[in-house]
């Protein structure tokens, strides 16, 4: 029996894992994104703790996954046909900032379509000191069919400078957001781009893409382990120097 205040090995393992906030696409759900990601090799995210919340607004119209995956369905915010005007975006950003503060800290973000677009915005805004000032810097992004916002008032802040967070961008050859996805990738410093022949979807990965993504995630987790070890060593060294 474990003593009071002691953590089980499973709890200790979860504590050490890097946390990733995963944002689903327009008029779907966190459960559906979890299912979409499950088609990838399970070893890719074995050292990451994935969180799949639902959007804050019920779907305001028909979902493309009706009859494919059970509802309810959600959306993060609303927008016009040209994607230049947005409704409830500020409320959405406030909700996610509160969620990350209360349930984090989060090391990275993963998103599909609307969720990827929103994830990149959060990272860009944080880098410019607009949001999440008390939250540690977001280290990485996994963007699947993402795009940039088109309102200049947003662009001039979020993408003002090259975003330094590590990023991987999945771009489909038949995706109607192919060009916007490429534009989003260009907003990041040294992005990894993984192309696939499919459309607007979370793609199935071939052996080469699986290897690329696995090496990328392993690099992030290894860097996190080394940083943690260095910080612990520094703290222990500082403690030894304290006067007795």
From TrEMBL:
**Residue ranges constituting the Serine hydrolase domain according to the UniProt record:** 14-209
Which InterPro entries has this protein been placed in?
AB_hydrolase_fold, FSH-like_dom
- Supply the name of the protein: Serine hydrolase domain-containing protein
């Amino acid at each position: 029996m474990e003593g009071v205040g002691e953590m089980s090995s499973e709890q200790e393992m979860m504590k050490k894992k890097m946390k990733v906030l995963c944002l689903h696409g327009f008029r779907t759900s966190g459960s559906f994104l979890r299912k979409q990601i499950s088609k990838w090799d399970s070893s890719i995210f074995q050292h990451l703790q994935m969180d799949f919340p639902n959007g804050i607004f019920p779907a305001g119209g028909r979902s493309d996954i009706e009859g494919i995956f059970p509802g309810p369905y959600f959306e993060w915010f609303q927008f016009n046909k040209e994607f230049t005007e947005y409704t409830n975006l500020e409320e959405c950003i406030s909700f996610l900032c509160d969620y990350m503060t209360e349930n984090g800290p989060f090391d990275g973000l993963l998103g599909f379509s609307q969720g990827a677009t929103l994830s990149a915005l959060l990272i860009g805004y944080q880098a410019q000191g607009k949001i999440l000032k008390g939250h540690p810097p977001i280290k990485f992004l996994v963007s699947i069919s993402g795009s940039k916002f088109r309102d200049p008032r947003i662009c001039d802040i979020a993408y003002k400078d090259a975003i330094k967070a590590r990023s991987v961008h999945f771009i489909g050859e038949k995706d109607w957001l192919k060009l916007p996805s490429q534009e989003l990738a260009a907003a990041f410093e040294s992005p990894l781009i993984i192309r696939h022949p499919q459309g607007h979807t979370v793609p199935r990965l071939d052996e080469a893409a699986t290897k690329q993504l696995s090496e990328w995630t392993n690099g992030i987790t290894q860097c996190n382990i080394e940083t943690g070890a260095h910080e612990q060593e520094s703290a222990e060294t500082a403690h030894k120097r304290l006067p007795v």
